[in-house]
Amino acid sequence: MDCKLAVSLMHDYLDDDLSKEQQLELKTHMLSCPDCRMQFKELEQTDMLMYSLTHHTPSASLELTERIMNSLPKQKKQQLWLTWVKRHPAITAAAIFVLVMLFSTVSFWDQDTQLVVKGSDLDQVVIEGNTVIVPEGKSIAGNLTVENGKTQIYGDVQGNLTVIDGSLYQASTAHISGQVKSIDQAMDWIWYKITNMFSDVAYR
């Protein structure tokens, strides 16, 4: 008998499905083959284990089930904020958007040092380095905004004057018909940008 046939007969032997002649042949082969003897021993142990698992008492079954369940990793309870987020996705998305815009705007505020001049009548303005000058006798029809620079007003501004992260000097000859805003903090700048954005949308 070869080993392949012996291994196939081992299963039938354990299930008590072999004739006496086949049992005798298998035992004779295993006496002369240590590999098959070892394989049969392992199969026999596995068969005994399976038998014990399928024929245990109900109380042992419950105990085994409880032991297995206790060994499983515990599912983490969802935190309250996560539940709230799932229930209010629109508010969460809006809040995240505002936070991202806030942080990016503050970062931009810290990094931006370039002089920016905005207005409708800028040909009346003189720029020397980072200084913006409205000379005496000159008049700007509309608003004037200066970012990251010094502003010196000697003439007229027929509108609002906004100075962002800079300094403002008004001579005795200066005349500003609108409001004068000096913004030198990040939150004031953010609020200014938001109000301007809504104003632009309203006028379109």
TrEMBL record:
The keyword Nucleotide-binding does not apply. Residues 3-37 form the Putative zinc-finger domain. Keywords: Membrane, Transmembrane, Transmembrane helix. The chain crosses the membrane at residues 90-109. Belongs to the zinc-associated anti-sigma factor (ZAS) superfamily. Anti-sigma-W factor family. This is Anti-sigma-W factor RsiW. It comes from Paenibacillus rhizosphaerae.
